[in-house]
Amino acid sequence: MAVSALRRLAASAPPSVFAAIGEGGRAQVEAVFAAGRVVPAKSPRHASILLVAGAIRDADAAALARVHDQLPHPRASVVCGDAPSHALPEPVRADTEAIEDAITATHRALVRGERASARDILADEPPAPWKGEGDHGQGGEGMMGGVPYGRPMAMTDDDVRDGLALDAYRATYGPFLPTMPPGLALDLTLQGDVIVAARVIAAPYAEPPAATPEAARRRIARLARLMGLAPQADRLLRGERPHASFVARTGMMKAIPEGLGATAPGDDVRARLRTWIAALEGGEKAIPPPAEGPKLVDLLIGLEWFEAMLVINSFHDATLREMTPADPPDGDHDAAHQHGGHGHAHHGHHQHEGHA
Questions:
Q1: E strands, the chain, in order
Q2: Considering Cα of 210, then 216, then 221, then 222, what sign does the dihedral take?
Q3: d(CA 337, CA 184)
Q4: Taking the model in full, what pTM does it have?
Q5: What is the CA radius of gyration of the chain?
Q6: DSSP label of 14
Q7: Whether 19 contacts 178, CB under 8 Å
Q8: Are 71 and 341 spatial neighbours (Cβ–Cβ below 8 Å)?
Q9: Residue 350 has what pLDDT?
Q10: Is 290 exposed, middle or buried (0-12, 13-18, 19+ CB in 10 A)?
Q11: Residue 29 CB contacts under 8 Å (≥ 6 apart), including other chains
Q12: Residue ranges in the chain modelled with pLDDT below 50
């Protein structure tokens, strides 16, 4: 009796959803989250439903499988429209006009035991081989600076700002990291939360050209969400908050460091935000055409994580794609050491260990 009551209670809760967004699916997912019937999960480990919207590149199918397998049981996938599902086991197909209904129904069926939890896609084995490795079969090549158990360890390295030597941490971020544009995958090395090296693995997905006030509204909401203003961002997307006063009331402009992400005099994150506000007020003509800029990775070095996410999300979609040509593959790093398509993939940074 008690178990049944708990199941009914759990089934009535809003579903926790992690979104894997492909080409053309970003606005669709943002509308679903802004409606307020589901809870967007920051990590697949906190979700029961994997929502797939838009066309996922074949090259990202492995990352999609890793994201799927990180969802705890019971779990299921909901695929919007006719988007490719790749190897997702028994996904639910959702009509694009009724995505929230499909998510809620699937979540309730899972919790009530009416639908079986999705099986793993990938084999249950270590992401990096280590058994029997090393002089004594201990699993690697030493400890400090080595690769015990197949995982390179972090070592101190020169800092790019104040000379304070901290452990350098290298990881792959994307292509489904919620704080970055869908499809963008970066190989970043951080000391603390400061980016000291960056490389593009994959450019973001192309989005349909949308020089409209609604597109500007979505861009403002994305920055607001990054700045911890998710409820306000949702209300802005739903049109419940007057856009003219949104930025002033929330203090967004003042919270963005002056000159952050500058590509030319008068063109920084603040200036881009002002452009979107003007576009929201004045319509299509207020949005300038994409301008040629430097490579994205050149703007990220020396920035803290929070600043870097603001810079990445401050560019027009087409401009960002021009700024992110993929760098040459980095040996085994890209293929063998990605452990999470949504976020970090790899510990440690050692040029001498052959991982960079």
A1: 16-21, 39-40, 49-53, 76-80, 92-94, 156-157, 166-173, 185-191, 194-202
A2: positive
A3: 17
A4: 0.83
A5: 22
A6: P
A7: yes
A8: no
A9: 33
A10: middle
A11: 19, 21, 51, 53
A12: 284, 286-287, 289-290, 334-340, 343-356
